[in-house]
Amino acid sequence: MANGPLIIVSGPSGSGKSTIIERLLAEETRPLHLSVSVTTRPPRAGEREGVHYHYWPRERFDREVRAGMFLEWADVFGNGYGTLKQEVEPHRQRGVGVVLDIDVNGWRQVKRQCPEAVSIFIRTSSPEELERRLRERGTETEESIQRRLQGARTELSQAPAYDYQVINDHLDAAVAEVRAIVRPLLERQQSHG
Ligand code: 5GP
C-alpha cells in the first residue's frame, strides 16, 4: 500500500489554523490523523494531555531529541515543540493521511526528509486582523502577544514557499479551501490502496 499523504499546516498564532484543522478532521470521512505534538509549555485552560499536546518537562524533551525520537523539533516562543516519528510513520504506513500543525522551522525540516509532503500556510489578510484575534482569544499576556506578533512577521515572510496559502478571513470559506486541497490527496490514496 502507498504511504498515506503528509499534510503540513503552518500559520501565525491567531490565524485560526487550529480551528480550521479541527473542522477539517471533524468533517472528513476518509482516514486522517492529526499528529499530537510534544511541548514543554504548560497546558492552557481547557487543553488536555494527549489530545492537544503531550506536555513534557524540558529534560525529557531534550533527552528524546538526542535519542532521535522526533521527526522535527523547534523552539517556539521559548518552549520546545516537536513531532514524534511515532505520531507520523505508523499511520502513513497504514495508508492513513497525517496532518502536522507545526511552525515554519518544523516545515523546513519535514520538507527535507519528506519532499512529497504538501504544505499549506494559513494567514489573515492583514496583520491588524491577526492582532485583533490574538487579543480577543484572551489566553495570552501582553508580552506573549507582542512575541507572537513578532513571530508572525517572520512566519509570514516564508509563506510564499508553501505549496498553498489560504486566507482565513471567513472561517467557512477557509475550511472549504483547505478541504479542497486535502480531499484529492486522500482520494488518490484510496484509489491506490
Ligand atoms: P501554541 O503554543 O499556540 O499551541 O503553538 C505555538 C506554535 O507552535 C504554533 O505555530 C504551532 O504550529 C507550533 N507547533 C505546535 N506543535 C509543533 C511541533 O510539533 N513542531 C513545531 N516545529 N512547531 C509546532
Please name the defining characteristics of this protein.
binds guanosine-5'-monophosphate; 5-stranded parallel β-sheet; 7 helices; globular; 193 residues; alpha/beta; 4-stranded mixed β-sheet
The helicity comes to 40-55%
Distance between the termini: 5 Å
Largest sheet: 5 strands, parallel
- Low-confidence runs: none
The number of helical segments is: 7
Radius of gyration from CA coordinates? 16 Å
Helix and strand succession? EHEEEHEEHEHEHHEH
Instruction: Compute the number of strand runs.
Output: 9
What does it look like?
- With 193 residues, this protein is α/β, with parallel strands linked by helices.
- 44% of the residues lie in helices and 21% in strands.
- The chain is built from seven helices and nine strands, in the order βαβββαββαβαβααβα.
- The strands form two sheets. The protein has a five-stranded parallel β-sheet with strand order 2-7-1-8-9, covered by helices on one side.
- β5 and β6 form a beta hairpin.
- The mean pLDDT is 94.
- It binds guanosine-5'-monophosphate.
- Residues 13, 37, 41, 72, 74, 76, 81-83, 101-103, 105-106 line the site of guanosine-5'-monophosphate.
